Amino acid sequence: MLRRPCWVEIRAQALENNFRFLNGIAAPHAELLAIVKANAYGHSLGLCAPAIVRAGASWLGVTSVEEGVEARSVCPEARILVIGGVFPGQGIDVVANSLTSVIWEPSQLNEIEAAAHAAGAAPASVPVHLELDTGMSRQGTDEAHLDLLLTPFSPDSPLRLEAVMTHLFAADEADGRVTGEQLERVDAALKRVFASGLRPEILNIGNSAALLGGQVHAIEEIAKRHGLGTMLRPGLALYGLVPEFDPAFAATEPQELTQGRIQLQPVLSWKSKVVSLRSVKAGTSVGYNGTFVATEPMRLALIAVGYADGLDRKLGNHFSLLVRGHRAPIVGRISMDQTVVDVTEIEGVEPGDEVVLLGSQGNQVITAADHAKVSETIPWEVFTRIGPRVARLAV
Ligand SMILES: *Cc1c(COP(=O)(O)O)cnc(C)c1O
Known about the structure:
Layout: E1 6-10, H1 12-26, E2 31-35, H2 37-41, H3 45-54, E3 59-62, H4 65-74, E4 79-82, H5 91-96, E5 99-103, H6 106-118, E6 126-131, H7 146-150, E7 159-166, H8 177-195, E8 202-205, H9 208-212, H10 216-225, E9 229-232, H11 255-263, E10 268-280, E11 285-286, E12 292-293, E13 298-303, E14 320-323, E15 326-329, E16 339-342, E17 354-361, E18 364-366, H12 368-375, H13 379-384, E19 391-394
Parallel strand pairs: 1-19, 2-3, 2-9, 3-4, 4-5, 5-6, 6-7, 7-8, 8-9
Antiparallel strand pairs: 1-10, 10-13, 10-17, 11-12, 13-16, 14-15, 14-17, 17-18
Helix pairs in contact: 1-3
The structure holds pyridoxal-5'-phosphate (PLP).
Pyridoxal-5'-phosphate binds next to helix 9.
């Protein structure tokens, strides 16, 4: 069946290029885990995860066990890390699908250990990654409870501590003070992990900002001190966006970041079509509550996209979409399923014309960062709220 024309196009080739570029920055100091959580940041897990694996990724990161099971069905060979942890009753799916869970509570270790025993798993055959809270106060164990999480890894346990992990939550700040403090806490915790006799292999740490912000060396130094390999976890950069850095960064912008601005390519375009056109007289109101009133005779185009597709209502009267290579201002409020744009100044607009909400047309470009600015949010949210009814198509 042909669909209502509101769709997303995914360029797998751009994604593969982005992975290779980021891997080039990381190598030989660090390995990458490609973050494909939340349906690959709204880009489609089914289209993106296999492309990233084709580009050479051996690790994928998802939020939940459910996402992990979905990733496993399209990437049978990949290592899959569940970064949001395991919930009661999910241990069986972790073991059955060879997922690797992040853990920071004894109950999570118990859940996985019980499932591993039930499946007859051999000693040390079920790897987990232990998360440390190094200052974000989100997930991860604090220093006081660390020992509780080290004791379950007895020699006859099916569990194996493969990696120690944390999240650098201020890698986009210029002075690096917070990251420095986090790394000191990691160093102290690793001393305790090794003193307890455990031998993890990987320090799993850092997002796109850490990778592009030139912090791989500082991270690797800590890892090396303990004989660990380094793993970074980029998300946003894979999808072609450079995170916004502290403006003070600009003075000493690392080469990785400058290169990233040139090399990373957007993966997603969001498109719709002109449904119909009307000419209105001056004084005509447009949309709910008439928040826009035509100031002169105008030509208006109805577009098949609304807030139920993920187009933020804040864009009403404050943003433009691309029609025939020109910017067409959104007039009035965005409805659930429809949006009206002003095409008075654009020649020859017809029903069926393609409209770009995010992406490029002619020499005009709209980025997720442009949306984020007007929606008062961040590009991550712009991508992840593109609704499930918007088809994702490979191009
Ligand atoms: C989402 C996430 C990432 C990726 O972050 P980006 O800023 O998109 O690169 C890395 N690590 C964890 C734990 C995450 O939740």
